[in-house]
Amino acid sequence: MSFIPLSKADVDILEKEKREIERRRREEADRKKRFFNDKERQMGVDADFIATQVVDKQKVKDAEKAEDVAYRKKVESFVDKLAVLDADRLKYQQTKAYEVGQIQKNSSVKDCDTYYLNDPDRIKNAVPPRTADDQDIPSCAVQKFDGEDLGIKDRVKSQQKELKKWCDEIVDEKQQAQSAEKKDVMDYVQQRDQALAQLEKVETNKAMAEKQHSIQCANANLVQRAEKVSREEQAVQNESDRAQKEVAQMLKSQFLNETWDSTLRCGPETGSKEKGRFIPYNFKGFSQEQKQAIINQQSEQIQQHAQSAKAAQDKENAYCQEQQQYGRQALLQLRNAQRLKLQRKSELADTHKTQIVETQDKSEEMNSVYANKVTPDFYKQFGTSTR
Q1: Domain that includes residue 347, residue range
Q2: CA-wise closest residue to 119 among 372, 370, 374, 373
Q3: Would you say the C-alpha torsion 280, 282, 286, 290 has a positive or negative sign?
Q4: Alpha-carbon torsion (258, 264, 268, 271), positive or negative
């Protein structure tokens, strides 16, 4: 039986990281084109672009999930194939044992070519003529006739020795066959254990690689986040300096010195539906409350992304533990089946040994009953003890 383990191909971490860096560079280039273009840039939160990012991330997650499902199906099909092969092997051995039992059941000792030599009814059926009906032993039994076989005992003993030798050879052949079969089973179990160990090693390497990749991504994200914070702080500082300059110019100018309400289409006191809308040609920038609201919303999005990544990692760890538990359960079922099989073989061997002993005892009893041996008491009636 051939054993071919299935495993997932290892992914080159450097190649994967290179693709990730190229993807981020393309996204950063697209973002710069959009961000530094005054005609396409939108003030505030770009909801469309964020929605596009969410859709792209969801597609990546779905692709990874589909890949994991396909790999899980491969592993399950591998376990099913092992179970089918083991069932076929067990069925073949059961069929073979049944055929042997049928041969033993339908065969008889009388079908043997040498049965007439050991027939217990041979003497009973070939009794010489008697001189009287009440005579138990014929008169011709006290003398030797031509053709009388006096070496039957020696021949029977030699035949019994040959029969014993044949039985010993048959027992040796059965023991050798059992040893060979046990060796095949042990080799199969060893190969299967090696394959399962290799599969577990591959899974461990995969988990470690993913963990290292997650750590690297997290470190890179922290570095990028620190750079982003520094850039934002610098931008805020630059904006603050520019705003101070503009305020100083506005204070000096009579034409530009206007109130905040002048930037709105309708004042906050009015009950119009257009409350809070800016006048495009009179826009002076966002207020401090509006900027703080945008920053708070961005912080909430960052926290949600971190929680989603943590939940995905927990789900992956639970899946790995589930796969390991399935492998252990399959191994335990296979070992229980092998143990039950060996126990049944031992019981069958004990039954065969018992049948052999019963047959030998029965043969000895029949020989002792129908051999019609001449005892010393018979010769005492003639006044002699020998022929």
Answers
A1: 322-352
A2: 370
A3: negative
A4: positive
E strands along the chain, which residues? none
Backbone φ and ψ of 257, nearest 5° = -80, 90
pLDDT at 45 over 80: no
CA–CA gap between residue 111 and residue 139 (Å, rounded): 35
Q: 256-300: per-residue pLDDT in tens?
A: 555 666 666 665 444 445 556 666 666 666 777 878 888 999 999
Q: Which phi and psi (to 5°) does residue 155 adopt?
A: -65, -40
Cα separation, 179 vs 342, whole angstroms: 12
Has residue 25 got a pLDDT over 50? Answer: yes
Angle between helices 152-252 and 13-35 (to 10 degrees): 20
Q: DSSP letters along 288-318, please?
A: HHHHHHHHHHHHHHHHHHHHHHHHHHHHHHH
Q: Is 43 exposed, middle or buried (0-12, 13-18, 19+ CB in 10 A)?
A: exposed
Q: Does residue 333 lie in a domain region?
A: yes
Non-local CB neighbours of 191 within 8 Å, separated by 6+ positions: 3
Q: What is the largest CA-CA distance in the chain?
A: 170
Tokens of 378: 């018979």
Torsion of CA 158, 159, 162, 168, to 10 degrees: -120
Residue 84 lies in a domain: no
pLDDT in tens, 189-228: 888 888 888 888 888 888 898 888 889 888 888 998 899 9
Q: Is residue 260 part of a domain?
A: no
Please state the domain count of the chain: 1
pTM for this structure? 0.22
In sequence order, the β-bridge partners of residue 340 are none
Mean pLDDT over residues 361-366, rounded?
85
Residue 347 lies in a domain: yes
CA distances from 237 to 233, 240, 242, 250, 265 (A): 6, 5, 9, 20, 30
For range 105-133, the mean pLDDT: 73
